[in-house]
Amino acid sequence: MDRHGHRVSHSSFTAPDHTRLADLHRAMVIGRRFNQQASTLARQGRLAVYPSSTGQEAAQVGGVLALGDQDWLFPTYRDSVALVTHGVDPVETLTLFRGDWHSGYDPHRYRCAPQCTPLATNASHAVGLTYAARRKGRDVAALAIMGDGATSEGDAHEAYNFAAVWNTPVVFLVQNNHWAISVPLHAQTAAPTLAHKAVGYGMRGYHVDGNDAAAVYAVVSHALAEARAGGGPAIVEALTYRVDPHTNSDAPQRYRDEAEVAYWTARDPLTRMAALIRREGVLGDEEETERALAAFDAEAEKVAAAVRDRLAGEDELDPASLFGDVYAEVPPLLREERQELVDGLRET
Amino acid sequence: MGAALNRALRDAAAEDPDVVVYGEDVGALGGVFRVTDGLSREFGAERVFDSPLAESGIIGTAIGMAMYGLRPVVEMQFDAFAYPAFEQVVSHLAKMRNRTRGAVALPVVVRVPYGGGIGGVEHHSDSSEAYYTHTPGLRVVTPGTPADAYSMLREAIACDDPVVFLEPKRRYWSKEAVELPVRTEPMERSVVRRAGDDATLVVYGPMVETALEAAAVAAEEGRSLEVVDLRQLSPWDDSVVTASVRRTGRAVVVHEASVFGGYGAEVAARVGERCFHYLEAPVLRVGGLDVPYPPPKMEHLHLPGVDRILAAVDRLQWESEWVADAEGPGVGG
Questions:
Q1: Distance, in angstroms, between B332 CA and closest chain A CA?
Q2: Residue A120: which residues within 8 A CB-CB, separation 6 or more?
Q3: Distance from CA of B20 to the nearest CA of A (A)
Q4: Is residue B123 annotated as a catalytic residue, yes or no?
Q5: Mutate to test the interface with A, among B51, B71, B99 (most CBs of A within 10 A)
Q6: Is B193 strand, coil or helix?
Q7: Is residue B333 a part of any domain in this protein?
Q8: Once rounded to an integer, what is the mean pLDDT over residues B27-42?
């Protein structure tokens, strides 16, 4: 779609049907509300930190909804909306930021690796997992998410190269949100686009409007289908913008102009999709449309309220649990330390 | 020892179809030390194969494979060439089980030929064990004998923890008459390689042989040295060492790595904490010089040998006045 939500066509990609468009919009509405709620909780001190992805919902939702039932997601810390869209429990998604534990969910249950904080290191995990799945005769593809800054890391290069050489079905979704904390894209790369990087690895590179959920969905679906068919991995660069600060402790006024933010908020992915939905009657006639859109908002409110409620109290944290899953069995040294810690706490 | 490792890999791969072996040059060449010789031919290129030349990618992909049920055994060609993979090892491999509260185990074995003594040029002789032992979540093991090389590698591959398997490359050519497959003590247990009464030599990996030579020489001079081979450096079960030192009253810990901040510091500290009232002398450390690993023609100056070990043993306060003091009231044991 164009910036006002007018449909445009592309010869190589199939546009999602109405049902899918509705799914995409619904997930974005929930994702936006989730971002807002989590940011509020961070300001209130209920979360230790929250890296918001407001403005990037289309890229995350479009990428994740393209995944099949057996496929895996390898997210970063900024991809909470991707996790929630993928089906990970919202509170379990926030465990990392709440400070209760370094990850709050069972990766096997959701087919979702822990949110990765070191940049681009999750990408080679996706390559290895899909290699293993192929060896076990299972049709599993993976979506590895990274940001524009992460493409400068050596681990991005190594993962791209391994995936291409091994021909594993991984789509590397690069959310180019233009800022790596305070460093702008032009200080990050001299490549014409980040999608160009694919050429050097002998794989396909796609450059897509990352604020157009339909386009991201169409391109990632296409790339996944090709990868599954043996066509090799791909880089999909989704051009988007980090509207909020890097985290709640960032100070973006020190490094960027409000005018730039305004340029991008005028291209907001939710506004554009809502315009398309209304114009094309994706959700029915005018009355049905407004009712359905209101229902999305109400659902998003429910998700936010549930998050608030469930995070209202403090979880009981068991000091002894620190020692439990360091090794398969607790070794003698850790048993001793655990005992000392527990005894010490009992005395105080 | 190289042949024992090769046999261990072969037997493990034959037993468990989830075992895959890869790294740089491990396929057709069989590894630069030939430890993977013939495996690619026997098990096929899907299970034993050359990877792109990128250590971080090797560990990263092994993590992904282990998440989906494989048991990758990867080779870092040389100690110092493993450093590009450090982040994957310490930030992901070591922590995945913990951060997922046990939901994701990573049974990955990272084989690292380590240490000097082979006339290697720069970056081919590092003793990098302390970098790994300082990271909770990793098992760090190192065999000192061919029998242990076989048994411990089999155990490492079967282990549900990630294992950094340090192979003392100067001992690849060490020979021991042993019927394979052999199973020795569980790898987390230190073993007494030679019993003795006067002092304990605490060693691992390449220094096991050297310490046994030193003990043999000392015996001719009338001094009885016990040699304890640590085997698993981390997590460390110190019970065998502390039992030994409580009996002998003296200890020297020996490794190739530089002394300052080395693994021996941990051993010395722990023995000091646990055996203080039994000690007749401070625990001494013998190790490499605190300099970058020297060039081949000068590495003999760096590496501990029999003479340096025995010189340290001689400094363990055997003089009668010290012994007399130590045997005073309230001290000794």
A1: 26
A2: A146, A150, A151, A153, A154, A155, A156, A159
A3: 10
A4: no
A5: B99
A6: strand
A7: no
A8: 97
Which residues of chain A have a CB within 8 Å of the CB of B96? 114
Using CB atoms within 10 A of its CB, is residue A110 exposed (0-12), middle (13-18) or buried (19+)? middle
Phi-psi region of B44 (alpha: psi -120 to 50; beta: other; left: phi over 0): left
| Closest Cβ opposite residue A118 in set B69, B91, B235 | B91
Contact A162 B51 (CB under 8 A): yes
Provide the shortest C-alpha distance from residue A116 to chain B (in Å): 9
Task: Name every residue whose Cβ is closer than 8 Å to that of residue B58 and which is 6 or more positions away in sequence.
Answer: B22, B23, B24, B51, B74, B76, B85
- Candidates A30, A59, A19, A33; CA nearest to A209 is A59
Q: What is the CATH number of the domain that holds B233?
A: 3.40.50.920
Mean per-residue pLDDT, B72-90: 97
Residue of B nearest to A71 (CA): B68
Global pTM exceeds 0.90 = yes
Nearest to B64 among A128, A161, A327 (CB): A128
Tell me if A106 and B103 make a contact (CB, 8 A cut-off).
yes
Pairing label, strands B48-50, B71-75: unpaired
B198 and B163 in one domain? no
| CB spacing of A324 vs B87 below 8 angstroms | no
For B213-232, the pLDDT digits (tens) are: 999 999 999 999 999 999 99
Residue B22 and residue B61 in one domain: yes
Q: Let me know whether B92 and B207 are in one domain.
A: no
Structural domain contains residue B13: yes
Task: Assign residue B58 the CATH number of its domain.
Answer: 3.40.50.970
Residues 64-103 of A with CB under 8 A from B: 101-103
Are B117 and B68 in contact by the 8 Å Cβ rule? The answer is no
Q: How many CB atoms lie within 10 A of CB A23?
A: 17
C-alpha dihedral sign at A67, A70, A74, A75: positive
How confident is residue B321, by pLDDT bands cut at 50, 70 and 90? low
Report the residue of chain A nearest B67, measured CA to CA: A129
Which of B124, B277, B300, B302 is catalytic? The answer is: B124
Number of domains in chain B: 2
- B-chain residues near A331 (CB < 8 A): 188, 235, 237
Residues B19 and B164 in one domain: yes
Q: Which domain holds residue B203?
A: 191-326
Q: How far apart are alpha carbons B209 and B204 in whole angstroms?
A: 9
Same domain, B144 and B232: no
> What is the enclosing helix (H) or strand (E) of A28?
helix A18-43
Q: Are residues B165 and B265 in the same domain?
A: no
Same domain, B95 and B206: no
Judge whether A107 is closer than 8 Å to chain B, CB to CB. yes
ipTM exceeds 0.90, yes or no: yes
Interface residue A277 vs chain B (CB under 8 A) = no
Q: Is A32 on the interface with B (CB under 8 A)?
A: no
Cα separation of A14 and A29, whole Å?
23
Q: Tell which of B171, B201, B225 closes a domain.
A: B171
- B140, B171, B202: which is the final residue of a domain? B171
Mean pLDDT, chain B, whole residue set: 95
User: Would you call B161 and A332 a contact, using CB atoms and an 8 Å cutoff?
Assistant: no
- Cα–Cα distance, A145 to A235 (Å, whole number): 10
**B186 occurs within a structural domain:** no
Instruction: Indicate whether B304 belongs to any domain.
Output: yes
